[in-house]
Amino acid sequence: MNENKTYKPRIADTVLARKLAGKGAVLIEGPKWCGKTTTAEQQAKSVIYMDDPANVKENLLKAELAPQELLQGDTPRLLDEWQIAPQLWDTIRFEADHRKGNGHFILTGSSVPVDEAQEDDEDKEESKKIRHSGTGRFGWVRMRPMALYESGESNGAVSLKELFSAPEKIYAKSPLSREDLAFVLCRGGWPGALDLDKDIALDQAFDYVESVAKKDMNRVVDKVRRNPERVRQLMRSYARNVASQAPYETIAADMQANEPKGMDAETVSAYIEALRKLFVIEESKAWNPNLRSKTAIRTTNTRYYSDPSIGTASLGIGPGDLLSDFNTFGLHFEGMAVRDLRTYASAQLGEVFHYRDSEGLECDAIVHLRDGSYGLIEIKIGGESLINDGAEALIKLRDKIDTTKMQKPSFLMVLIGIGEIAYRRADGVYVVPLGCLKD
Question: Using an 8 Å Cβ cutoff, are 43 and 9 in contact?
Fold first, then answer.
C-alpha cells in the first residue's frame, strides 16, 4: 500500500510477513513513535486510522453499532491505533475465524487496552470488554525503536545468528567512537530523529518523556489521573535504577531521598504497570536453567526502558554527561544493548532473559531460541579489565549449567560499547562491539 521510497527496512518486516502467513490477524505492539504504523503500511492493502481527528467520533460510533463496516477493504487491512475501540477485538477475532485463509488484518497499538483483571471490573461497560483472548487467530509482533543496525550505525559485520554456529574466528572493526556511541544512545532509535540535525535529534527523547508525563499516562486504560510532575519523578528514579533488579521498595526509597514528593512502594508499582502498558518500559525476565548445584535463582526483573534515550532524557542528561560519567554511561549502554539484542533475536523468534543467583553470579543477557539453543552475553561499556571480568563470569555460569539436562551454550560473548575490534579470545569467548552486531 505504502510506496514511500525512503522507508528503511526493519527486522519487524520479516517477522510480520511470517506471522501474517500463519494467522488471521496480527497485532503490532510497541511504544509510540517507534514506526509501527509505517511498518504495517508496507504490507497492508487498505487502512483505517482509528484515531484520525477528522473521523475518530464516527469510527468510535461505528465500532459500537456496526463494527464490521470498519473491517471492509482489501486485505491485509490495517486498523491503526485500534485500542481506542477495544470492542473491535472480538469482531476481528470472529471475522478472522470465519474467513478463509490467513493474513486478513493488521492491528497496531501503543498501549494495552484491557487485561484480565480489568475484564472483571464491574464499572466497565459490557461492550468495552474483550471476551476472547484471540488464541489461535492472532499473532503478535513486538516492535521497538530502531536497533543500531536498522538505523545504519552498526556495520553488521558480526551476525548474532551466525554466532550460534560457533565460528572459530571472527574479525570486524566498529565504526563508532565513544562520542558516536554516547550520541546514538541519547538520541535513541526513534525513526523520526534519524535525519535531523544532532541538537534537534536529541530533543525527540525529551519530547517523548513530556508526552508520557502530560498526556499518555492519563490515557492508559485504567483512566487514573496522574500528576505529570510525579510521573517525571518516577521516571527519573526508574532511570537511576536502570539495569538493576531494584525492587519497588528501593525505587520508592530513592524517590523519597531525591524527589520533592516521593511515593510508597504500592504507588510505584501502579505507575510502573502503567508505563508497561504504554510500552515505555520493557523489563527483562529471569532465566531459569538446570544447574549442577542447588543455587537459588533470583527472579526479580531487570529494569529497562524500551529505549535508552528515555532514561537519559528522564535524567535530563546528554552525550557530554555520559562521557564524563562512565558508570552512568555503562548502565544506559546496557539498556541500548538489550534493546538491540531483543530486536536481533526476534528475527529468529528468540527471547532475551537475564540471570542472577544467590551467590552473586550474574549474566546480563541470555538469547534463547525456540529450538532450545542459547547464548550467554555479558554487556560491558569497554576496557580490558571489564572484558576479562565479563568473560570470567560467563565461563563460571557455563560451568554451573547441567548439560545432561539441557544443551550447552552455543556461544559466550562480551558485548561492548567502547572498543574497535570484534574477535574471539583464546578461551573461546567472543568480544563484539555493538557497532558491529546485526541479526
Answer: no
